[in-house]
Amino acid sequence: MKGLCPRLAVSIYHKPEDVVEIPAYILSLHEDHRLYIRHYQMSACETILYAV
User: Fold this and answer.
1) N or C: which end of the chain has fewer CB within 10 A?
2) b vs e for 7-46, b when ≥16 Cβ sit within 10 Å of the residue's Cβ?
3) 26-41 pLDDT per residue, tens
């Protein structure tokens, strides 16, 4: 259904390429998502991509 897109919270710290590949994949499925990245620790661990 056009206009409907799920809200997602996806971990993107398991592999270095996740930071690029996962957002690209999400946008390929639904280009209207707005993407936000948040860190919850000083290191790259616990980096979450939000798609809304």
Assistant:
1) N
2) ebeeebbeeeebeeebbeebeeeeeebeeeeeeeeeeeee
3) 999 999 999 999 988 8
